[in-house]
Amino acid sequence: MNLTINSRTPNETTRILEIEGEIDVYTSPQLKQEIVKLAEGGVKHLIINLSKVEYLDSTGLGVLIGGLKRLREAEGNLVLVGPALRILRIFEITGLDKIFDIYATEEDAAAKEGVSL
Membrane-spanning residues where (predicted)? Predict the structure, then answer.
């Protein structure tokens, strides 16, 4: 399965990544490259929409954790939006639901993070 990443720019320091497909050992480098590029480009708020993600493995979790760390070190944040129940369960089992801010919708995420869409 391939990974499709669509990027939207609601404002200068915020990006929304809509991810579709599987985030696994084969596709994770593509996501990592995109997150690093955005962080190095000055993005402070990264909203990752997982509503169309069908599968997430430990490699994908590692990429998301790395992105979160990178953005928080730059006084920003990476938040997750709309994961399917089976994907959300992965975060709950690993305890990462206590590390990541996870929201139901992009609007909820923007409101809680204080950014405008």
Answer: none
Overall average pLDDT of the 96-101 stretch:
98
Assess whether pLDDT exceeds 90 at residue 115: no
What is the domain partition of the chain in residue ranges? 3-110
Instruction: Output the pTM of the full model.
Output: 0.95
**Sign, Cα dihedral of 78, 111, 82, 42:** negative
Residue 100 contacts by C-beta under 8 Å, 6 or more apart in sequence?
Answer: 64, 68, 78, 79, 80, 91
Of 55, 60, 52, 56, the closest CA to residue 30 belongs to 60
pLDDT grade, residue 81 (50/70/90)?
Answer: very high
